[in-house]
Amino acid sequence: MSIKNISRRGLLRTGAVTAGGLALPTIFTSSASAYTNEPTGSSVKLGFNVPQTGPYAEEGLDELRAFELAVEHLNGEGDGGMLSTFSSKELQGNGILGKKVEFVTGDTQTKSDVARTSAQSMIQKDGVVMVSGGSSSGVAVAVQGLCQEAGVIFMAALTHSNDTTGKDKKANGFRYFFNAYMSGAALAPVLSNAYGNERRAYHLTADYTWGWTQEESIKASTEALGWETVETVRTPVGAGDFSSYIAPVLNSGADVLILNHYGGDMVNSLTQAVQFGLRDKQVNGKNFEIIVPLYSELMAEGAGSNIQGVYGSMNWNWQLQDPGTQAFVQSFGKKYGRPPSGSAHTSYVQTLLYADAVTRAGTFNPCGVVEALEDFEFDGLGIGNTYYRGADHQCFKDVLVMKGADNPTNQYDTLEIVEVTPRSQVEYEPDHPMFAGGELGECNPGA
Amino acid sequence: MDAIILQLFNGLEKGSAYALIALGLTLIFGTLGVVNFAHGALFMIGAFCAVTLSRIFQISFLTEDPTQTDFLGNPLQVETPYVEKWFGADAGAWMIDYSVPLSILLTIPVMLLVGYVMERGLIKHFYKRPHADQILVTFGLAIVLQEVVRYFYGANPIQTTSPSDYSGTVNIGAMFGMQIFYPVWRLVYFFFSAIVIGGVFAFLQFTTFGMVVRAGMADRETVGLLGIDIDKRFTLMFGIAASVAGLAGVMYAPILSPNYHMGMDFLVLSFVVVVVGGMGSLPGAVAAGFLLGILQSFASLNEVKAIIPGIDQIIIYVVAIVILLTRPRGLLGRRGVMEE
A60 to chain B, minimum CA–CA distance in Å? Predict the structure, then answer.
């Protein structure tokens, strides 16, 4: 057909038919699904997006172990773990709303762009209704934003930055893990008792969102004690050799070094600080001390004897004696031959909390899940009475203050619980200045 | 003043590692003409030789202690290393304590073998290919090697301690009546690298083998025409270069807890060191290693960063740009190397 044969009427007709044809699948889709990836078969798929390679891979692998265990328990396999201790008795081990739970995994490589791509693939190709995981606040914030846009629920795992439930909070995102503010609030009284109120602190801080908010939080809580902050120095993530940053500490007049580092950076900076003899020094007539505000069991294992006597904080630890912890440790220990890490615990609990919220809501619709999780109060998942605040989707519960064990008897016995800080001591208002600047917004069901 | 002296020592220690890695890179480039992006991985394998020997020495048998329990509430299994059973408690404990320096004995043959296999098995097939191909294949090899290490050793850094006799600090300012404490092991590392660098130069300068290699580096064809099998010698040089990287890694293990990607962290910096020193120049690589190590340490001083924020992250590249603009062949580079 030559171009001369196209009439105006014919062109309009062809255009209308083509546009209608193109719109047809969308029309069907939107009428068929009320929300993104509504499960229609006998199973439902969850997406676990963790670092399987890169510097936080060990944390990610432990998270995956816990996710796998949670799915087993939800499907009625194994010993049921915390299902029997959870205060909500909705979960019966028959999947979620009677649908068998399946999962897909992705590798974030602890890089925000890779994590987003991986989560996007899970949502678009695999059809997951919930994404969980992450071992870095940068990744968590990025994936949380994506899930909000896509209309699926994000149950954050390991993210400690204030921003995750502060300026970057989202209606579709929920955090069970504690945050930097809570670490500061829990540590301050213990540090005051141990080291007094006249100290001079020097901060070495990982140069990204988590490091900045932890530095801000610890600085605020220690200065409230009367401590002076001598210097705050930002260090690149993955610096490896921190000797150039540690040497200036020696002549700064500081008598406390606060390491706002995590993972491999913390292992290296702490080890090197000890090698430089900081802990043998006397400054201002006091013993020089080192503090690691955020601990993990895997980091403690890597740092070996260098952490002996060093204070820090944790979200949860396998040595707790409550029935929930005992059930989880038994379950995890029998399956994997080692106690679970804090990140494993958070991953497991977040999966159960999601499944429970869906069951209570009676739907996988993200808006129903959000409603079920907001202001939900529960117990039996490891660290006493816990509250998911509706205003910012942050969990509030007791916080553990830890210390490097003086006489470890085995490779897992690296940390000891110094104090269980009550929830009331770490609570704050939703509009606290450290969390200001963001809006939770409306839940997005997608589709 | 104290801070300046400390940063000078830090720079020397950091420069020692750069110099050792860059020396191996230059040896390979000078002899075989290959740009070896897997050299950082060889440094990493060296560090893991220390981890491996330490773990071998700590292989233990279990005895049950009914008075204690493990995390599941079962009777605690107490581990006793076999070396303590076979050689006595004191000798066994000494072997575990000195596992890093003893690892040198393991590292040299392992790295010679790794270097030989790498060169004969893969890299020799790329001699006549463009440098871009060599970079791609060696970079790919580096990724494979680090993933193999991650598979067996995990992703977390593994703390590897120096012998307890060398784990403290020493007052390096004592001779000036000052109190400046510096970690003993970092000083040991500096002297160790000085010995290795001296040994490599002496080997090349004072042995017949070294003389032939140097002649081959200068004019490969003529040496071949004289009936000398220069390829065989160059293969051995690849093994020696790998061993130098391995030795740099094994002794660095107590300074930087070994992890599977530590080689990549050093690789880029070491290439800058080679380029600044002058492609193919062994003294240039060593001089640039120490120079950049010291500059990087001084750039980390808070006073310097207060004037130019972030200078500690870019100083090496700034210096590289300045030197390449003023001396395009690097500090001690020779005419004709890497030039059309």
Answer: 10
Q: Is A176 left (phi over 0), alpha (psi -120 to 50) or beta?
A: alpha
* B99 membership: H or E segment, kind and range: helix B99-121
B157 CB neighbours in chain A (<8 A) are 264, 267-268, 302
Report the percent of chain A where pLDDT is more than 70.
92
Among A244, A281, A318, select the one facing B10 at the smallest CB separation. A244
Amino acid at the residue A92? Q
Residue B107: alpha-carbon gap to chain centroid: 12
The phi, psi pair for A308, rounded to 5°, reads: -55, 125
How far B9 CA lies from chain A's nearest CA (Å)?
A: 10
User: Which residue among A244, A299, A410 places its CB closest to the CB of B296?
Assistant: A244
The residue type at B254: P
B47-78 pLDDT per residue, tens? 999 999 999 999 999 888 888 888 887 888 88
ipTM field? 0.80
Joined together, the tokens standing for residue A188 give 């301050």
Question: Angle CA(A388)–CA(A390)–CA(A395) in degrees, nearest 5?
Answer: 25
Residue B170 three-state SS: strand
Interchain proximity A410–B181, CB inside 8 Å: no
The full set of domains in chain A, from first to last, is: 43-178+318-392 (3.40.50.2300), 181-314 (3.40.50.2300)
**Residue A420: what are its φ and ψ, rounded to 5°?**
-100, 105
